[in-house]
Amino acid sequence: VIAEDDVAEHFLSHPDFEALRVAQITSWPTGFDDKASPVRKLWEAWNQERIEGLADHDEGKRARAFYKANKTAMTAGAAVSWPARFDRKRKDPDAIYAAMWDYYRLGEVSFMSERQNKPMKENVTVYDLTPALICSRVHADRNRGDVPAEARIIVAATDLNHYGLHFAAVAFGPDQTGWLAWYGRHDNEGRGIVPKDCPEPEAKRRMFEALVLHGQGLAKLPLTRSGQSVRIGFWLIDAGYMPEVVKRYVEGPGRTLGIPLLSARGYGFDKYSPTPKHCIGAPREQCHLAESTISGRFVAFQADYWREVAQRAWLGTPNAPGSISLFDGARHNEFAEHICREKLLEKLRGQYGPVWRWATAPGWHDFSDSLTMCFVAAAWSGIGTAGPPIPRKRPQQVRRHSKVEIDDEYTEERRLHAKMYGRR
Asked: How buried is residue 104: exposed, middle or buried, by Cβ count under 10 Å (0-12/13-18/19+)?
């Protein structure tokens, strides 16, 4: 169990399953929970010996010596689930020693989830995002399809899966303030797009036809701004599922009735590589244009970065700079649950940049994926986390004039020299 309400927790707590949680340490040393207790101070001193010894490349010699000298006091009341679980080649004395080595090596937060199946609740998420909070972010008196006058662009994004196409359309202001104008699911009236055991050619045909109908629907969305009809200005389509079909649809003439569109693929922080070798043109904010044989030209983006940006936008009140809000007059429970099924547990500073660690709860999170791509589409259109670019005035070139007195004798010498060699 990595985090509260994750997939493992779902099945371990489900009444239809018989579950058994196995912890590495089944009983802690007596008094270990009290950081001021003698046994805790002994273990902290042992860990200091362990760290200093490793720094001297002693392969744990100092830690083993300290443990053997104080074993009785350090292990009173301690027990492990697997007594044979220790490394004899590393000369571990026993399984309790090996378990406590893991505890101090991993840190308490990671050890409690990775080894104990009991994550620490107070350290579950970086920020508190709940479906109730998202449902409260309603832009009052703005109905479905209404676009505020200050919106600069309307973007849309569609996430593909065999069970349906989930999409969102968001209007963005110059400072990345977002207003959700529309969202929905195209799923063949609840029957799904691709049925189970469907042959691959038939599955691709069904998905292509679903994209055609979906694109026609997007082009006809009744979006209005200040009483005037407006249209979507840019559309991104997920190319992670059936990329060949998405490529054919995107490159086909007139499929979207005039909406500019590109396919897109998200990559984790450890896979995203906007190097000159992989970029077409200059990269933009955590996204760039790439090309492959299967997908054709597509927008590659750093999924962890933009998912966090999209989630943090819900923490602001409606209309606050950088926030996002829902339209009024509808229940948004399902949409909100999709957003909250991916929780950011940790964001660390790694050797090559930030490292994101997520926990995914059971269920769909397709609306979350489509909303994340909407933020990518806005960034591709010039609206990012830094706000609109500030135009800089070109500095006016100043010409400087200086007077130089030329000696008459020197001038006459140059005249005679030019006459001699035929120069003027």
From this structure: middle
* Mean pLDDT (the chain, rounded): 88
Residues in the chain: 424
| Cα–Cα distances in angstroms (integers) from residue 6 to residues 53, 126, 341, 380, 421, in the given order | 38, 16, 9, 33, 92
Per-residue pLDDT at 411: 57
Distance of CA 251 to the CA centre of its chain: 28
359 phi, psi to nearest 5 deg: -125, 130
pLDDT tens digits along 130-185: 999 999 999 989 999 999 999 999 999 999 999 999 999 999 999 999 999 999 99
Q: For 7-37, b where at least 16 C-beta lie within 10 A, e where not — what string?
A: ebbeeeeeeeeeeeeeebbeebbebbeeeee
Q: What is the pairing mode between strands 234-238 and 228-230?
A: unpaired
* pTM tops 0.70: no
Cα 394 to Cα 78, 323, 389, distances in angstroms: 72, 33, 15
Kind of pairing, strands 164-172 and 25-27?
unpaired
Is residue 392 pLDDT above 60, yes or no? Answer: no
Residue pair 175/321 in contact (Cβ under 8 Å)? The answer is: yes
Report DSSP state, residue 369: H
